[in-house]
Amino acid sequence: MDYLLSLLNSAVGNQEVARLLFVGAITLSAVLAVVTVALLMIGLQDPVQRRLKVLKSAQVAVGGSHRAPSSLQLMLEQVGERFAGNQDWHNSPTRTLLVHAGYRQPSAAQAYWAARLLLMLVLVGIAVLALPFIKGASFLQSTLLLLGAAGVGWIVPAIYVDKRKQARMRLLRAGFPDALDLLVVCVESGLALPQSIERVAEELSVSHGELAEELALVNAEIRAGISSTEALRHLADRTGLEDINGLVSLLAQSIRFGTSVADTLRIYAEEFRDRRTQAAEEQAAKLGTKLIFPLIFCLWPSFFLVVIGPVIVGVLKAFGRL
C-alpha cells in the first residue's frame, strides 16, 4: 500500500491529492469486486432452474412480461454486443473464426470476448499485486508492466483460437483425400449423394473424427429439409478450406444442371490428385532454397573450422618462431 501511495505521490506531486486518488481507487475496486461476485452468484444457479428460465424467456407471459434467462448469460451477451457493435453475429469475422476453430455454439462469440476481457483484468490485477515486490521500479516502468499484462491477457485467447483453427484445418485437409476417394466409390456403386455422405461419415469416424463430424452435420441438415446444395455450402463455410469449397461448387453445379454426380466427383478427384502432386513438387523445389540458411549458419562454420583451423594454427606457430 505504501509503495503504491508513494508512486501516486511521485506522479501527482501532491500528497493530499495522491491520498484522495488512492482512497478512490480502493473504493472503486471494492465496489466492482462486490458487484462482480454478486453477478456471478446470481448467474451461477442450478442448471435446471437456468434451463427453465431460458425456456420461459422464449415465451410471453400472461401479463406480457419477458424474463431474462440469467444474469451471467446477459452479461456475456452484453460484452459481446459491445465489442461487435452493430454487426450481425452470423456474418461477423469473429463468428467465422470461431466456427473454423470448431466452436459452433450460439454463445461462442460472447464467451470469446468475455474470456479476453476477464483474462486481461486478471493479469492486470496480478501485476498490480506484484508491483510492491519489484524494488526500484519507476512510475513509467510500472505503467509499462500494467500495459504489458493487459496486452498479454487480450492477445493470448486470440492466439489460442487461431492455433486451434489452424490445427483443425490441418486435420480436415489431411482427411479430405480419403473422404473424396470413399465418396467416389459410394456414388459409383449406386448410392445417392446423402447416403454416400452418411456412409463416408461412418467410415471416417475413427480415423478422421473432425471431418466425419462435419459430414454427419451435412447429412443432418439434408434430413432436416435443407437442400443438398445449401448444406454443402454450409460445409464449405464451416471448414474454410479451398479444396472443399471447390468440391462444393462443382457438386452444386452438377445438381443444378442435372449432370452425373459420379463423373463430377471422379474428375475432381483426378484434379485434386494433380494439385496434391504439384504442391508436393513445389515444396520439394523450395527445399534447396530453404537449406541455404542452415548450411551457412550451422554447417559451413564447422567445415571452415575443421579445414582451415589446422592451417591457421600452423601459421600462428610459424610466425611465433620468428
UniProtKB/TrEMBL annotation:
Q: Which residues form the Type II secretion system protein GspF domain?
A: 180-308
Query: What Pfam family is a match for this entry?
Result: T2SSF
Q: How does it sit in the membrane?
A: Multi-pass membrane protein
Localization: Cell membrane
Q: Cite the entry's keywords alphabetically.
A: Cell membrane, Membrane, Transmembrane, Transmembrane helix
Specify the domain of life of the species encoding this protein.
Bacteria
Stretches that traverse the bilayer: 20-44, 113-134, 140-161, 291-316
InterPro entries according to UniProt = T2SS_GspF_dom
Q: What is this protein called?
A: Type II secretion system F family protein
Q: Which organism is it from?
A: Geopseudomonas aromaticivorans
